[in-house]
Amino acid sequence: MDTFERLTALSAALETGLVERRRHVRLALLAALAGEHTLLVGPPGTAKSELARRLHTAFRDAAYFERLLTRFSVPEELFGPLSIRALEEDRYERHTAGFLPDAAIAFIDEVFKANSAILNALLTLLNEREFDNGAGRQPCPLISAIGATNAVPEDEVAEAFFDRFLLRLPVEQVSREGFDALLRTPDTLTRAGAANALALTRDDLAALAAQAAAVELPDTAAALLAELRSHCADEQLPVSDRRWVKIVRLLRVAAAAAGRKSISAWDLLLLPFCTAPDAARQEAVAGWLAARLGVRDAVSPARLTRVVEAFEAQRDLETKANDLDYDESGRLKFSSTELAASLANDIAGSIGDAKGGAAALRMTYSRQRRYGATHIEARVRQIDDALTRIATYAAEIAERESELAAYRARNLWLDEALLDRVAANLRGTAATIAGLAARMQAARESFLALPRLDADDGRMPEPVAHENLAAA
């Protein structure tokens, strides 16, 4: 059983009996594999503590610590009592065995209700895996911590502590559709036995970390991360530099767990839970990503539409253009038929306008402009070039759809609904490109149908001005 198969089976065992908690179980496991922490934000009674206890069973020989904090909690509850013997020797040290500094998996409920002394101590423990015990620092075996809260307060200490949790997962009550399954959930679950049979060791974590370190960050993914960073800044979503570094490590672990050597564009769908603090803003980031993943700027429907519209506007201009034909002396040239028709129209118009009075005879002449073969061939060549590039973009979107299908076959971390959203965007983009290609073909036919001069005048038209389709 390879790593992907083992993690798939382990995730399935962990989420057994939990209704609508697949995302939370799997992302909390991913965070633990990456050595990161998860914050669950939601009302009481939504299986937050149960999720943490299940995560503990995913790791072999991993000490577990759990504590509910209140406004009156003291450091001893988390870090252990003071050592009397050490005090007698003028040392301020704690007995940490069985407490948070000794734990591999920890669950801290109502974590933001702790006082500043506890939160400040937790900052170092969560980030550096060290605990200040007396005059020295004690290494901590912590793999991952899960925090739970009903709401995140807004103050300086809480903001720094909030940043220690790479994944922020909103937890809601079970939906109406899942309520029946909730009622039928058995009281006793055999989750521990199933998970323990697949539990990961420290060696497994070290091997996965080594694989993740070798995973490549492609330029396209790095560029999209940079674009998202700017987007977050514009939307006033603060994301620290430290968090971006941790995000890339998480993406590498996600790729390594699936047996890939490179971060996929689709892995970036994990970013809403890493960058945005709440459900509403995570949904906004998810929408931003879904609209961009797999679609380069040059292939965007908006850009291609502007290109097609430029050719259509030029077609309309040349189709409706009037022309006046002059002889070598500068006088208008008319055939007898054209002259008779023009005079008849002018006389009829003058009579109608006179309204019983004398009217001056006006002479007007209009004829659809005619074009030389050189002009028409130049227009058609430019359109053919654009059609070739549009066909290339259509093939590119088809390739992205194929890649997404392959990714889904080995998808371990992402919700199918989110992948459906991206797939729908790709299908919509493909349909739009096909429609734009049809419009461009129609414009091509219109240029071919322009009235022609009897003899080519050799005039080369200025190219139709449009956005460069060859741009990245």
Features of this protein?
472 residues; alpha/beta; Rossmann fold; Helicase, Ruva Protein, domain 3; five-stranded parallel beta sheet; two-stranded antiparallel ribbon; 7 strands; P-loop_NTPase
Topology:
Layout: H1 3-15, H2 22-33, E1 38-41, H3 48-56, E2 64-68, H4 75-79, H5 84-88, E3 105-109, H6 116-128, E4 130-133, E5 136-139, E6 144-149, H7 156-162, E7 167-170, H8 179-183, H9 191-197, H10 202-213, H11 219-234, H12 241-257, H13 272-275, H14 279-290, H15 301-320, H16 336-354, H17 373-409, H18 416-448
Parallel strand pairs: 1-6, 1-7, 2-3, 3-6
Antiparallel strand pairs: 4-5
Helix pairs in contact: 1-2, 1-9, 2-3, 6-7, 10-12, 15-18, 17-18
CATH 2nd-level architecture of the largest domain:
3-Layer(aba) Sandwich
Structural class: alpha/beta
Order of helices and strands: HHEHEHHEHEEEHEHHHHHHHHHHH
Strand order of the largest sheet: 2-3-6-1-7
User: What distance lies between the first and last C-alpha atoms, to the nearest angstrom?
Assistant: 41 Å
CATH class of the largest domain: Alpha Beta
Protein name: MoxR-like ATPase
Organism: Sulfurisoma sediminicola
Domain AAA+ ATPase: 34-175
Pfam family, one: bpMoxR
Describe the 3D structure.
- The strands form 2 sheets. A 5-stranded parallel beta sheet has the order 2-3-6-1-7.
- It has helices at residues 3-15, 22-33, 48-56, 75-79, 84-88, 116-128, 156-162, 179-183, 191-197, 202-213, 219-234, 241-257, 272-275, 279-290, 301-320, 336-354, 373-409, 416-448; strands at residues 38-41, 64-68, 105-109, 130-133, 136-139, 144-149, 167-170.
- Mean pLDDT is 86; it is low at 326-332.
- Strand 4 (130-133) and strand 5 (136-139) form a beta hairpin.
- The chain is built from 18 helices and 7 strands.
- The protein folds into 3 domains: 3-200, P-loop containing nucleotide triphosphate hydrolases (Rossmann fold, 3-Layer(aba) Sandwich); 208-293, Helicase, Ruva Protein, domain 3; 301-323 and 368-448.
- Helices cover 52% and strands 7% of the residues.
- The protein is elongated and about 110 Å long.
- Helix 6 runs parallel beside helix 7, helix 15 runs parallel beside helix 18 and helix 17 (373-409) runs antiparallel to helix 18 (416-448).
- It is an alpha/beta fold and 472 residues long.
- The longest helix is centred in the C-terminal third of the chain and has 37 residues, at 373-409.
- Residues 34-175 form the AAA+ ATPase domain.
- This is MoxR-like ATPase.
- InterPro entries: AAA+_ATPase (IPR003593), MoxR (IPR045427), P-loop_NTPase (IPR027417), RavA-like_AAA_lid (IPR041538), RavA_ATPases (IPR050513).
